[in-house]
Specification:
CATH architecture: 3-Layer(aba) Sandwich
Order of helices and strands: EHHEHEEEHEHHEHEEEEEHE
Number of helices: 8
Number of strands: 13
CATH superfamily: Survival protein SurE-like phosphatase/nucleotidase
Number of domains: 1
Strand content: 25-35%
Structural class: alpha/beta
Low-confidence stretches: 1-11, 13-40
CATH topology: Stationary-phase Survival Protein Sure Homolog, Chain: A
Length: 305
């Protein structure tokens, strides 16, 4: 397996259940990145999210890493949560410069998180970023939420473009402890710069909403199998048109051991390596006998042939 840098996950294993802050990630700055460049003077990072450019999470992320890199922000102009990996093809992508306290903060885009990453890399940045970081999301992106998440999709888009990327989410929808997520994001960026990521792999980071000193460490996890049990509240507008509000609860579909959901519940930062190859490779043998399903087929070949 080719790597962007060195072996990231092996560097974390053996440290991931120690006590303290985030074990094995307390690196000194500056240090040399995967491309041999000084973090402070040479690294370029793109920040994105799905909560929108005015969300407190992306401001917290910027504050966490702004002294580590040349930071560029390109994010949706409004909340685009749960849009998945949608892209805009029938409308123009309008942009607007956003200023905070009189200083340029970033570009707001009338598009999806994936749009933002594509546009940033291709048109808005002076050169390609060394890393893409998406977040900090208000709410976890664990279990089946990964599929719907615009936050994760922004990092996925970076990975598709060949850029080492990670998504960072905080496990709460109320009273967020941004300082904890900021410290984790900062330490994770340092580790990414040092060790890189396996090619085609993004890192999905979920942070418990507890004080930094209460974190138990990190766990390397898999995506938990789960689904939402939806309910739809039927309503009617003043003109007699029926509409629905969707709500629901997360239901686990398996033993949560070694999953992102379980790690969060136990007070650990969850680190899940994800990819965009959706092939169910273990199921390919099951379909070997389907080669004659359509008559007139030529000599059959499998996806792994």
């Amino acid at each position: 397996m080719e790597l962007w840098g060195y072996n990231f996950f092996n560097g974390l294993l053996g440290h991931h259940e120690d006590g303290g802050s985030v074990p094995g990630l307390n690196l000194q700055y500056p240090c040399q990145g995967a491309k041999g460049r000084d973090i402070v003077s040479g690294m370029r990072v793109l920040l994105c999210n799905d909560d929108g450019i005015h969300a407190p999470g992306i401001a917290a992320l910027y504050d966490a890493v702004r002294d580590m890199a040349e930071v560029h922000i390109v994010a949706p102009e409004a909340e685009r949560s749960a849009v998945g990996h949608a892209i805009t093809i029938y409308n123009p992508l309008k942009t607007k410069k956003i200023f905070k306290n009189g200083e340029f903060f970033g570009y707001a885009v009338e598009g999806t998180p994936a749009d933002c990453v594509k546009l940033a890399v291709s048109a808005l940045m002076p050169g390609p970023p060394d890393f893409v970081i998406s977040g900090i999301n208000l709410g976890p992106n664990a279990g089946i939420s990964v599929i719907y998440s615009g936050t994760v999709s922004a990092a996925t888009e970076g990975t598709i473009l060949g850029i080492p990327s990670m998504a960072v989410s905080l496990n709460t929808f109320a009273d967020p402890l941004w300082d904890t997520a900021k410290k984790v994001a900062r330490e994770m960026l340092a580790r990414l710069a040092q060790d890189g990521l396996p090619e085609g792999t993004l890192l999905n980071v979920n942070v418990p909403n507890i004080p930094m000193e209460e974190l138990k460490g990190t766990r390397i996890t898999r995506m938990g199998r789960s689904r939402y049990i939806e309910t739809f509240e039927k309503r009617m507008d003043p003109r007699g048109n029926v509409y629905y509000w969707m709500d629901g609860e997360l239901a686990l579909l398996e033993d949560p051991a070694n999953t992102d959901l379980n790690a969060l519940e136990d007070g650990y930062v969850s680190l899940s390596p994800l990819g965009f190859d959706l092939t169910r490779h273990s199921a390919l043998p099951h379909f070997e006998k389907w080669h004659d399903a359509v008559s007139g087929s030529e000599t059959p070949q499998t996806a792994d042939s």
